[in-house]
């Protein structure tokens, strides 16, 4: 096992206070139990890169669930045992989560299958990981002085800002690792090594992605677009050929990347529209609707996400009318019945001024102060007339023809069938 000189070992003193307390408790628990304990993966990588620590993952040469319970006795919290994969998680009382895994090996019955796991030493555990920069381990117990294990040259790849699979068959064994490569490379600003790009393309050519469930693919896509930098993610996805693995013909054209950049801006201010369906629609906006229908089926997309993908052909046909609409009330009526994702996707396909009108109409701040109850109390019989009166009153507010103070009088006139108030 290759080790690194002590001068190159990341200092645990740089850990945030809360994380540092958890690490100290874990070291004490491991010494008490006489087990070797390692920090692994992202926490070691981010310590070396001097980045904010996002995750806290331990590997123990012992029983993960038993160790998690011992750690929970020190920190408090609830342990969840994921027995099949020999992992456990400690959910602490302050809302944190600590993952613990038994040091193990993995085998795959066929490409795309979930792994079969068995206990093994730390050397085999690191050898099963996805990328060299994640195959780093910091031994923190029982020894008092931490020791960095780097059997695959992960530290050199960090220095070169390069993302590299541990072995050429990695994306064939687990094709979701290709999406993970995009996510890490995009997050860290790394390049994917040429050999790793070729490995992904071989997995695509061998139809390895066909064996992966739609649910797993959907979750990986959601993770990719949950992080900042959607245009960069799309460039990397296209460079690896991953859209083809999903049955899509998507490129990193300047028009597509522009839509993705606008989608990021919309998502940041409109949480109801944010998420992977918006980014896929923005990217694939000009593709034949049949491709999006097939993609929805491939991903097993249901609910609003499935409807947005299935209905995109009809939704997209609203673009010319939205461009011609001049009154906010016209725009609002064109958008009636659309979900926030669909309205947001339409907006990113329009020039800035027209997009702003769509966004304002879709989730603008104009709201009526009155409701149907106010009209009933004023003597209007319950029925469809109330709904129509409120709709016309909102149109008048949106178009600037009516102040809030005049809503009730205007609505009453509309309900009574008389003309608009000037």
Number of helices: 23
Largest sheet: 7 strands, mixed
Instruction: Examine the coordinates and then state which fold CATH places here, giving the name of the CATH topology of the largest domain.
Output: cca-adding enzyme, domain 2
Question: CATH class of the largest domain, please?
Answer: Mainly Alpha
Indicate the structural class.
Answer: alpha+beta
CATH architecture of the largest domain: Orthogonal Bundle
Distance between the ends: 84 Å
Q: Can you count the beta strands?
A: 11
Helix content bin: 40-55%
**What overall geometry do the principal axes of the alpha carbons give?**
elongated
Summarize the structure in words:
The protein has 422 residues and is α+β, with helices and mostly antiparallel strands. The protein folds into three domains: 6-159, 2-Layer Sandwich (Beta Polymerase, domain 2), CATH 3.30.460.10; 176-363, cca-adding enzyme, domain 2; 372-416, no CATH class. It contains 23 helices and eleven strands. The strands form three sheets. It has a seven-stranded mixed sheet with strand order 3-4-5-2-1-8-9. A two-stranded antiparallel sheet has the order 6-7. A two-stranded parallel ribbon has the order 10-11. The longest helix is centred in the first third of the chain and has 17 residues, at 17-33. The termini are far apart.
